[in-house]
């Protein structure tokens, strides 16, 4: 039963942090708020992708990064989006 619940949970969207020259302060912050519940990937043009593994961690990461005044590009989670119906 528990496995069925986990498979229906949607994957949280990634967060992108542009202009990262030194990733160490950001990884320290991420380890404080969500140890082992995210993946970090470096991209081109000094950009970093942070992929949370849980929805609850997604909101925590976004709030903390925005609170620390980091520039961040993030998408809204599917569970928070409104439903659009076109007839």
Q: Could you say which overall geometry the principal axes of the C-alpha atoms support? A: globular
Largest sheet: 4 strands, antiparallel
Number of domains: 1
Name the beta content range: 15-25%
At the fold tier of CATH, the topology name is: Alpha-Beta Plaits
The average pLDDT score comes to 78
- CATH class category: Alpha Beta
Along the chain, the helix and strand elements come as: HEHEEHE
The SS-based structural class is alpha+beta
* Unreliable segments of 5+ consecutive residues: none
Radius of gyration: 15 Å
- Helix count, per DSSP? 3
Total beta-strand segments: 4
As a percent range, the share of helical residues equals 25-40%
Distance between the termini: 37 Å
CATH architecture: 2-Layer Sandwich
Quick recap:
With 87 residues, the protein is an alpha+beta fold.
General description of the model:
- The protein is α+β, with helices and mostly antiparallel strands and 87 residues long.
- The chain has one domain (11-74): Alpha-Beta Plaits, CATH 3.30.70.
- Helices cover 34% and strands 20% of the residues.
- The chain contains three helices and four strands, in the order H-E-H-E-E-H-E.
- It has helices at 2-8, 24-33, 55-67, and strands spanning 15-17, 38-43, 47-52, 73-74.
- It has a four-stranded antiparallel sheet.
- Strand 2 (38-43) and strand 3 (47-52) form a beta hairpin.
- The longest helix is centred in the last third of the chain and has 13 residues, at 55-67.
- The termini are far apart.
- The model has no long low-confidence stretch (mean pLDDT 78).
């Amino acid at each position: 039963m528990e496995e069925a619940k986990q498979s229906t949970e949607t994957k949280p969207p990634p967060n992108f942090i542009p202009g990262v020259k030194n990733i160490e302060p950001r990884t320290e912050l991420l380890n404080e708020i969500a140890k082992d519940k995210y993946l970090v990937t470096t991209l081109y043009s000094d950009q970093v992708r942070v992929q949370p593994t849980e929805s609850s961690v997604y909101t925590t990461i976004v709030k903390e990064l925005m609170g620390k005044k980091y520039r961040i590009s993030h998408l809204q989670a599917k569970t928070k989006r409104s439903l659009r119906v076109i007839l």
